[in-house]
């Protein structure tokens, strides 16, 4: 901070980095669609079914390459 002088005292916008476990917009859409058509399932059941059906981990692995 010393090297920035008086400018170092100014407010800056906080830096918001993408987190490693953040859902992608298309994944959120799939989750909401599945939950809408399966209201009898709990959130835990929905997460298990979606993981089995859509394999989000594979999608993320491809996008990070």
Key traits:
65 residues; mainly alpha; 3 helices; 52% helix; rod-shaped
Please write the string of helix (H) and strand (E) elements: HHH
Number of strands: 0
From the N-terminal CA to the C-terminal CA, the straight-line distance is 36 Å
Q: What is the averaged pLDDT score? A: 78
pLDDT < 50 stretches: none
Structural class of the secondary structure composition? mainly alpha
In helices, the fraction of residues equals: 40-55%
- The share of residues in extended strands comes to under 5%
Report the radius of gyration as a whole number of Å: 20 Å
Largest sheet: none
> What's the total helix number?
3
Shape: rod-shaped
């Amino acid at each position: 901070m010393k090297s920035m002088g008086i400018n170092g005292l100014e407010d800056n916008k906080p830096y918001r980095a993408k987190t490693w476990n953040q859902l992608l917009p298309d994944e959120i859409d799939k989750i909401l669609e599945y939950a809408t058509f399966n209201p009898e399932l709990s959130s835990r059941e929905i997460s298990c079914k979606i993981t089995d059906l859509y394999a989000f981990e594979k999608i993320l692995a491809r996008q990070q390459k």
